[in-house]
Write a structure and sequence with these properties.
CATH topology: Rossmann fold
CATH class: Alpha Beta
Strand order of the largest sheet: 3-2-1-4-5-6-7
Bound molecules: nicotinamide-adenine-dinucleotide
Structural class: alpha/beta
Shape: globular
Helix content: 40-55%
Number of helices: 8
CATH architecture: 3-Layer(aba) Sandwich
Distance between the termini: 36 Å
């Protein structure tokens, strides 16, 4: 039995990953800023038939991330897969970005992933086992998007950490990969769309529709689409893969 910890597991893509991995037979630890949403996803995980544990933590705080991993190990009797999914978006033209904005988004999207990598690797090495670390990058980790400059920079940084960590931990049997979704209709996109509307005068929904219109497969992505790929990254079929940040976006950014 494998145990997977998912940060930002209270909604959106994190919830989609949790439900898919539970269906695959993993037990699930859910970490997020507030108890309510992760308790509700934990109930869904238990309905599927897997064990679930929850832990409230802010991923930008290193000690809290280490505590979340320890809690997972104790509550579920193991720890095998770390999914550094929590992230936030910011929409602003580069001219408007201020130090406090950079500090906030960097703290969650980059520091949060770094602490998650460290905490997971430390636990895998302490228990003498192999493990899988999976990070959330984005199409914006492959292309810098207008109005999403700093967000894109954080997602490029996630790719860099993924590559470096893969090289550093390979000798310990730890693989590190990232998933790069495209346009997933979560609360994050509701916020992005509203901010674009404020900044550009676009109607609400217009920016989302424009992005979705560019997708080769002709529809927005769902959290289940992301969950299906993370299922592969979390399972034995991806054992020979490390250091990769793979686009799973319906054909939007081509590499
Ligand atoms: N939605 C998309 O189109 C899309 C595309 C590419 C990549 N991503 C990435 O996928 C991940 C999940 O995105 P989503 O769309 O589900 O977002 P979302 O906003 O719907 O959910 C994010 C979750 O992370 C939690 N969270 C935020 N800050 C946190 C913190 N400091 N500590 C702990 N938890 C925190 C939130 O409370 C929320 O439950 C993010 O890293 C995002 O950048 C999303």
């Amino acid at each position: 039995m494998s145990v997977a910890l998912i940060t930002g597991g209270g909604r959106g893509i994190g919830r989609g990953i949790a439900l898919r991995l539970a269906s695959d037979g993993h037990d699930i630890a859910l970490v997020d800023l507030n108890a309510g949403p992760i308790e509700s996803v934990a109930a869904e995980v238990r309905e599927i038939g897997s064990k679930a544990a929850t832990f409230v933590a802010d991923v930008s705080d290193r000690d809290q991330v280490f505590a979340a991993v320890d809690h997972t190990y104790e509550a579920l009797g193991g720890f095998d897969v770390m999914i550094n999914n929590a992230g936030i978006a910011q929409v602003a033209p580069i001219d408007d970005v201020r130090p406090s904005d950079v500090k906030q988004i960097w703290g969650v999207n980059v520091d949060g992933v770094l602490w998650g990598i460290q905490a997971a690797a430390a636990k895998f090495m302490a228990t003498g086992q192999t493990g899988k670390i999976i990070n959330a990058s984005s199409i914006a980790g492959h292309d810098g998007f207008a109005m999403l400059g700093v967000y894109s920079a954080t997602k490029f940084a996630v790719r860099a950490l993924t590559q470096a960590a893969a090289k550093e931990y390979a000798a310990h049997g730890i693989t590190v990969n990232a998933y790069c979704p495209g346009v997933v209709g979560t609360d994050m996109w509701v916020t992005i769309d509203k901010r674009f509307a404020e900044l550009t005068g676009a109607a609400e929904g217009e920016t989302y529709d424009k992005f979705v219109g560019g997708i080769t497969l002709g529809r927005a992505q769902t959290p289940e689409d992301v969950g299906a790929f993370v299922s592969y990254l979390a399972g034995p079929d991806s054992d020979y893969m490390t250091g990769q940040a793979v686009l799973i976006d319906g054909g939007l950014v081509f590499r």
